Amino acid sequence: MLRHFGSVIVVMTLGALATGAAAGVEDRRPNVIVMLADDLGPGDLSCYGGSIPTPNIDRMAKEGVRFTRYYSASPICSPSRCGLITGQFPARWRITSYLQTRAGNRSCEQADFLDPKAPALPRALKASGYRTAHVGKWHLGGGRDVQNPPRFAAYGYDSGKGTWESPEPAAELTARDWIWSAVDPVKRWQRTAWMCDTALGYVSAHPDKPCFVNLWLDDTHTPWVPSADDQKAGKDGRASGRGDTKERLRRVMVEVDRQVGKLLDALRKDRTGRSTIVLFISDNGPLPTFQRERTVGLRGSKLSLYEGGVRLPFIAWGPGIVPAGLVNDTTVLAAVDLLPTLCRLCAASLPADYQGDGEDMSSALLGKSPRRTRPLFWEYGRNDRSFSYPRGNDRSPNLGVLDGDWKLLVDDDGRNPELYHLADDPTETKNRIADEPKVASRLRDAVLNWRKSLP
Fold it and tell me: What is the pTM of this model?
């Protein structure tokens, strides 16, 4: 169901968006900024029913399209980011958990970094004439004892300013050999502001060409450190938080919301005549969930294939392109859709020989309600040694498939199947495996065959 609030901004046609891509004509294609928040649940935003006031992100939703059925490619950060960049399920590229030490990666049966031969959204846009930049968390290679990851340019970025877990950590964020420290020039509670300012600066520095910027925030990942009083400094300069409380999360979210507001205000005041599309997304579900407050009642969390681990906020904003005041409750949108979707909106060709797992959902960002035609697949939990969390009722089987309103979870040996009809049971409380044997058999065969096809 597509709900509408207020007047709809006149939407450009795809043909109009493509104007200027031809040689000799001024390129008027839109800038694109993909804001990816770390471990953010829908319950962290008031426009999704959360208790933390986020007025600027709420305004963004009112001025754009808010989706309620968006899915990440994984319930943990590195593979979820791989799916977004490549438009393919991350296990294709042997990324199944967060990238860490080489020994830890071997234990997870995964690679040490994203293969630069993989298709990449920034590379496709760069090939069509876009300026491209990455700002913020990367976590697709680099840090710990992985000292030789491909540079940002290998994936199609003109510029890269990463955090510690990246091939090119920004000096402002990494004074010590760790994710963050008490002596970083940009303090933990200043990172979102620095990242947003850096992204805006990149766009402002290239008015002659459209820009694509990955703006990947990390302040919403634990530990939550909203001020100097909330950090503990170690002897080596490394720092830690003083406890992950609801109040510290609230203060972090207030600052994130403030910086999102500043970024959007700057874009609203832009007088260059170039439109900008901003997407606000999360990489995976939250942890801790505070008794499911952060998942708005959905079962699961980060590290789980239940809805709370993979069903996340997605807001599309872009005055003059994205219509205002819409809530899309029906379209199933996924991270693996972003590559074909943004290539279409930006009049860029898909990579040569591209075999994507997503779909072109550009019409959804333009106010329509397309129906998904391909199932979504997930894998998380290749062994019990490296994938032993979360504990208890939120721990899911290690494979999942979603087809329409039916979702099946099952272990890769075929045991422990669970079948849910999400339209009737979004909190996944009633296992329908005995009621719908034909549906269960079809989906179980599909997901087990998919798993067998992976490296």
Answer: 0.95
Task: Give the closest residue to 369 by CA, choosing from 61, 92, 39, 3.
Answer: 3
- Give Cα 99 to chain centroid, integer Å: 16
Query: Facing residues of 232 across strands?
Result: 240
| Residues 162-203 pLDDT 10s | 999 999 999 999 999 999 999 999 999 999 999 999 999 999
Token digits of residue 217: 């925030």
* CA distances in angstroms from 321 to 13, 65, 324, listed in the order given: 8, 11, 9
User: According to CATH, what is the number of the domain 2-374?
Assistant: 3.40.720.10
User: Residue 306 to residues 52, 220, 421, 439: CA-CA distances in angstroms?
Assistant: 24, 21, 12, 19
**What are the beta bridge partners of residue 131?**
211
Domain 378-452 has CATH 3.30.1120.10: yes
Dist CA 168 CA 180 (whole Å): 15
Model pLDDT for residues 31-66, shown as the tens digit of each residue: 999 999 999 999 999 999 999 999 999 999 999 999
How many residues does this entry show for the chain? Answer: 455
Please state the domain extents for the chain: 2-374, 378-452
